[in-house]
């Protein structure tokens, strides 16, 4: 079931972003400014996804029928991950991150990228020496 | 992010420093602030008198109104780090380069590129965290702050959300004397690492904009203050002190004009005595310390006026822009609710782990910070005015320290540096590292004058040559035969000569015109080429003038 729903996700029309390539789900819970309290006791069932808002924030355009179609499918994916809620975390220290390796650092030594021309050439709309973009006045 | 400022309801945390200290009458709205290193306190007082008068006639009512309210001010500062490369890739960063020449797949956010953290960023963050007396998180992480904007190539900014590298610190500063002086201590909520976005330029004709990605990925440290400031001048001085600290540490050149130090200010007011905070307004586009001062004072007045007229519902949570030309804040677009950045831990970067040894190593290598210098200079007996000047620029302080460590008189050294040397630097537009007068020679100069080898006047003259061309004091004295004449016999001979050459004036003097003593003294100075010791000269002159009759 999991792999089929992931395949359906690839039918979305959106430009590639790092989030999709790592195929991790977006956190659908509204981020709160307080320190995370991920306890199993506070939420026993996850919120249903607000697909319209989700699509808006991800800048994905969905037709109304697509919204209806995808809502239960997204819900299924969330609920599948929701199985994790059953784990008892009372005696477990929250981890900052999932990995255990430490830093992967680099020295502060400049290196110019060799093929900058290719980078510029790949820009769809370039008006020397700037990247040409639509006029957007407000963030978000 | 917006809500961290009101996380804790602080009721009058600094009652020791009542806001009445700040005298609003002395043209605060139009003062020039000390933003460059070489301005002296005396130069600060040169405010256009014209402006002061007009402020007086209008200010009675707004002045009274604002006194009924307490302003709560917090500042978010972004400091661009002076590392050689960007935060997550090895592209160099140089302010002012040709657009889109310092780019690579990583900072352009191209598919498949992965960030690799620059170790210097952590070092600078720890340095600043320690300098701001913060608690360091030995384990912290990066998060993605997601939003769409043309200057943000990846569609998210790598930042730190809930576990910043440093929290809970404070900064000490001294307010400039022309604003009443006084010591202040403001809290620092947090310091975290993040990357800068590119530069977005709006073209003249409205249908498109332009992006330069040279700046995308440059490391920043964001410093969030506690809402402890109460006036525009406190806020401006907080920013100035941050600039001093980052320059002292060498982590940034802290230049507001270049954009390596950016401040956004949050202002709200509440009636004196009320414990709840009022509505908070954010002000952007502040390009100098004086703008910070003036914008906040304007905003306080604006809000106080609305509140006092019963229109406090017109004070809405919004972002306003400071317009330097019009000297007022104007609405940007009103926010349609809080932005949802959908923070989650950055999967492409590992945890940031600091060891206690690493932190201790950095702590031990910290230079003497501005606050410590000021306290040390105070203990040496220097006046507050001297202290603030000397400690303002780290290079000037080092020069001063080099001079007094070689035994020069403290007060004299301070006077020379703050007076003639500073004036020279200002005229020639040089920094103290560029003048040719070495600290050792300043020591020699002071000693020569103090010891009587040369007169003070001659000292000032050769100073100019030493500043411009270098050389040694001893060398110049010898070369130009400047040694002071202190032999009374020799002076006596010169006085006799002058008196005999000017019989008419001598008669006038004896007739009652005692003011002519100055004339005679000047003549003796002339024939001695300025070398006669003035005190001795006048003593002998007076004797001879009053002797014969």
Automatic annotation (TrEMBL), chain A:
GO terms for cellular component: chloroplast; glutamyl-tRNA(Gln) amidotransferase complex; mitochondrion. Its EC number is 6.3.5.-. It catalyses: L-glutamyl-tRNA(Gln) + L-glutamine + ATP + H2O = L-glutaminyl-tRNA(Gln) + L-glutamate + ADP + phosphate + H(+). It is found in: Mitochondrion; Plastid, Chloroplast. SUPFAM superfamilies: Glu-tRNAGln amidotransferase C subunit. InterPro entries: Asp/Glu-ADT_sf_sub_c, GatC. The keyword Ligase applies. GO terms for molecular function: ATP binding; glutaminyl-tRNA synthase (glutamine-hydrolyzing) activity. It is an enzyme of class 6 (ligase). One of its GO terms (biological process) is glutaminyl-tRNAGln biosynthesis via transamidation. Belongs to the GatC family. HAMAP family: GatC. Subunit of the heterotrimeric GatCAB amidotransferase (AdT) complex, composed of A, B and C subunits. This is Glutamyl-tRNA(Gln) amidotransferase subunit C, chloroplastic/mitochondrial. It comes from Theobroma cacao (Cacao). The gene is GATC.
UniProtKB/TrEMBL annotation, chain B:
PANTHER family: GLUTAMYL-TRNA GLN AMIDOTRANSFERASE SUBUNIT B MITOCHONDRIAL AND PROKARYOTIC PET112-RELATED, GLUTAMYL-TRNA(GLN) AMIDOTRANSFERASE SUBUNIT B, MITOCHONDRIAL. This is Glutamyl-tRNA(Gln) amidotransferase subunit B, chloroplastic/mitochondrial. The keyword DNA-binding does not apply. Its EC number is 6.3.5.-. Residues 39-61 are annotated as: Disordered. Subunit of the heterotrimeric GatCAB amidotransferase (AdT) complex, composed of A, B and C subunits. Heterotrimer of A, B and C subunits. Residues 398-545 form the Asn/Gln amidotransferase domain. NCBIfam families: gatB (TIGR00133), PRK05477.1-2 (NF004012), PRK05477.1-4 (NF004014). Belongs to the GatB/GatE family. GatB subfamily. Its main location: mitochondrion. Allows the formation of correctly charged Asn-tRNA(Asn) or Gln-tRNA(Gln) through the transamidation of misacylated Asp-tRNA(Asn) or Glu-tRNA(Gln) in organisms which lack either or both of asparaginyl-tRNA or glutaminyl-tRNA synthetases. The reaction takes place in the presence of glutamine and ATP through an activated phospho-Asp-tRNA(Asn) or phospho-Glu-tRNA(Gln). Keywords: ATP-binding, Chloroplast, Ligase, Mitochondrion, Nucleotide-binding, Plastid, Protein biosynthesis. The keyword Methyltransferase does not apply. One of its GO terms (cellular component) is glutamyl-tRNA(Gln) amidotransferase complex. InterPro entries: Asn/Gln-tRNA_amidoTrfase_suB/E, Asn/Gln-tRNA_Trfase_suB/E_cat, Asn/Gln_amidotransferase, Asn/Gln_tRNA_amidoTrase-B-like, GatB, GatB_C_1, GatB_Yqey_C_2, Gln-tRNA_amidoTrfase_suB_CS. It catalyses: L-aspartyl-tRNA(Asn) + L-glutamine + ATP + H2O = L-asparaginyl-tRNA(Asn) + L-glutamate + ADP + phosphate + 2 H(+); L-glutamyl-tRNA(Gln) + L-glutamine + ATP + H2O = L-glutaminyl-tRNA(Gln) + L-glutamate + ADP + phosphate + H(+). It holds the Pfam family GatB_N. Gene3D superfamilies: 1.10.10.410, GatB domain, N-terminal subdomain. One of its GO terms (biological process) is glutaminyl-tRNAGln biosynthesis via transamidation. GO terms for molecular function: ATP binding; glutaminyl-tRNA synthase (glutamine-hydrolyzing) activity. It is found in: Mitochondrion; Plastid, Chloroplast.
């Amino acid at each position: 079931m999991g792999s089929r729903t992931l395949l359906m996700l690839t039918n979305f029309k959106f430009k590639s972003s790092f989030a999709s390539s790592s195929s991790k789900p977006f956190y659908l819970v509204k981020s709160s400014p307080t320190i995370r309290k991920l306890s199993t006791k506070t939420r026993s069932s996850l919120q249903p996804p607000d697909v319209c808002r989700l699509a808006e924030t991800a800048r994905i355009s969905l037709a109304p029928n697509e919204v209806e179609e995808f809502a239960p499918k997204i819900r299924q994916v969330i609920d599948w991950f929701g199985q994790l809620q059953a784990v008892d975390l009372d005696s477990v220290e929250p981890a900052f991150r999932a990995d255990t390796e430490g830093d992967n650092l680099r020295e502060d030594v400049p290196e110019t990228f060799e093929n900058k021309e290719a980078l510029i050439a790949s820009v769809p709309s370039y008006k020397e020496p700037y990247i040409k973009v639509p006029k957007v006045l407000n963030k978000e | 992010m917006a809500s961290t400022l009101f996380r804790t309801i602080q009721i009058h945390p600094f009652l020791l420093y009542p806001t009445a200290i700040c005298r609003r009458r002395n043209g605060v709205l139009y003062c020039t602030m000390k933003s460059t290193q070489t301005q002296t306190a005396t130069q600060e007082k040169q405010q256009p008198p014209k402006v002061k008068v007009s402020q007086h006639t209008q200010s009675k009512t707004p002045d009274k109104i604002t006194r009924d309210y307490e302003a709560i001010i917090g500042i978010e500062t972004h400091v661009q780090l002076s590392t050689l490369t960007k935060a997550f890739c090895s592209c160099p960063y140089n302010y002012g380069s040709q657009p889109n020449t310092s780019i690579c797949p990583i900072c352009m956010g191209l598919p498949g590129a992965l960030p690799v953290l620059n170790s210097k960023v952590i070092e600078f963050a720890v340095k600043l965290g320690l300098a701001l007396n913060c608690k360091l998180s030995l384990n912290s992480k990066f998060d993605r702050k997601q939003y769409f904007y043309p200057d943000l190539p990846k569609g998210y900014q790598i930042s730190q959300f809930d576990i910043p590298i440093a929290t809970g610190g404070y900064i000490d500063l001294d307010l400039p004397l022309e604003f009443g002086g006084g010591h202040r201590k403001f809290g620092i909520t947090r310091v975290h690492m993040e990357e800068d976005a590119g530069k977005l330029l709006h073209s003249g004709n409205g249908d498109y904009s332009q992006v330069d990605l040279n700046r995308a990925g440059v490391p920043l440290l964001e410093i969030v203050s506690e809402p402890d400031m109460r006036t525009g001048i406190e806020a401006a001085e907080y920013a100035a002190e941050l600039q001093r600290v980052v320059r002292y540490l060498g982590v940034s050149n802290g230049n507001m004009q270049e954009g390596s130090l950016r401040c956004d200010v949050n202002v709200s007011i509440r009636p004196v005595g009320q414990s709840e905070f009022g509505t908070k307004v954010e002000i952007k586009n502040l390009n100098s310390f004086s703008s910070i001062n003036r914008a906040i004072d304007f905003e306080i007045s604006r809000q106080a006026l609305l509140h006092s007229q019963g229109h406090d519902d017109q004070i809405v949570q919004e972002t306003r822009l400071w317009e330097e030309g019009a000297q007022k804040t104007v609405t940007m677009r009103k926010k349609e609710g809080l932005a949802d950045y959908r923070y989650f831990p950055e999967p492409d970067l590992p945890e940031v782990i600091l060891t206690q040894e690493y932190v201790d190593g950095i702590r031990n290598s910290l230079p003497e910070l501005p606050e410590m210098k000021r306290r040390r200079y105070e203990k040496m007996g220097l006046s507050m005015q001297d202290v603030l000047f000397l400690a303002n620029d780290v290079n000037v302080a080092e020069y001063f320290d080099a001079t007094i460590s070689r035994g020069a008189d403290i007060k004299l050294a301070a006077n020379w540096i703050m007076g003639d040397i500073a004036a020279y630097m200002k005229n020639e537009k040089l920094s103290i590292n560029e003048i040719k007068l070495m600290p050792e020679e300043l020591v020699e100069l002071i000693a020569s004058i103090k010891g009587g080898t040369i007169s003070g006047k001659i000292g000032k003259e050769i100073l100019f040559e030493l500043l411009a061309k270098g050389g040694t004091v001893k060398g110049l004295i010898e070369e130009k035969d400047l040694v002071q004449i202190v032999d009374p016999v020799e002076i006596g001979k010169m006085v006799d000569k002058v008196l005999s050459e000017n019989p008419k004036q001598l008669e006038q003097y004896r007739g009652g015109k005692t003011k002519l003593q100055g004339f005679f003294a000047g003549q003796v100075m002339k024939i001695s080429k300025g070398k006669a010791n003035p005190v001795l000269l006048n003593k002998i002159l007076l004797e001879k003038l009053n002797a014969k009759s």
